[in-house]
């Protein structure tokens, strides 16, 4: 068989059918897994997780979670859009539902009921997170943190311009 004939044979018998099959299967997968609507009841529902008995794991989980929360607030936009504000508010409520220590999550939901998330700006969000952390600190008889230093402590040091 001549090379050109072999090329056309491969093109029509192998390459093109494979291409259309892959394209169709990706398209089908997109169609059968649409993003579900997230309604308000899901966001503000009750605690999902069971109790976490192990004190060491509870403390480690707490440290890493506070670090995540404070760093997130420290990098939240200074002037967020409505969408960004709602994203942060939803995250905090979902975080309180899904926090892996059930008894901590129950206490945290009670705090959220009294002190709803402040999402109007980076400063508001950072100060809110610092304040609710201090409420937990107080209950656990830990030192109260100076919220005036929170921006300095949790700036992540990333090169924003290069990573934008
Ligand atoms: C939402 C949530 C609820 C929790 N509920 C409970 C609970 O009910 N029972 C329980 O036993 N544990 C709970 N924990 C864990 C608890 O808060 C601590 O994380 C854990 O006891 C370890 O404490 P730590 O002394 O190492 O410091 P952490 O409180 O974990 O703090 C870590 C570091 O953050 C800094 N920091 C401290 N306070 C602040 C602040 N206000 N703002 C900014 N930075 C601060 C300090 O540098 C500190 O060393 C909870 C954690 C979270 C995230």
TrEMBL record:
Coiled-coil annotated residue ranges, if any: none
Record has Disulfide bond as a keyword: yes
Gene3D superfamilies assigned: ERV/ALR sulfhydryl oxidase domain (1.20.120.310)
EC number: 1.8.3.2
GO CC list: mitochondrion
Catalytic activity entry: 2 R'C(R)SH + O2 = R'C(R)S-S(R)CR' + H2O2
InterPro entries: ALR/ERV (IPR039799), ERV/ALR_sulphydryl_oxid_sf (IPR036774), ERV/ALR_sulphydryl_oxidase (IPR017905)
Domain ERV/ALR sulfhydryl oxidase: 54-154
Signal peptide: 1-24
Enzyme class, UniProt record, top EC level: oxidoreductase
UniProt keywords, alphabetically: Disulfide bond, FAD, Flavoprotein, Oxidoreductase, Signal
Phylogenetic lineage: Eukaryota, Fungi, Fungi incertae sedis, Mucoromycota, Glomeromycotina
Domain of life: Eukaryota
Identification of the protein by name: Sulfhydryl oxidase
GO molecular function: flavin adenine dinucleotide binding; flavin-dependent sulfhydryl oxidase activity
Pfam families linked to this entry: Evr1_Alr
UniProt cofactor(s): FAD
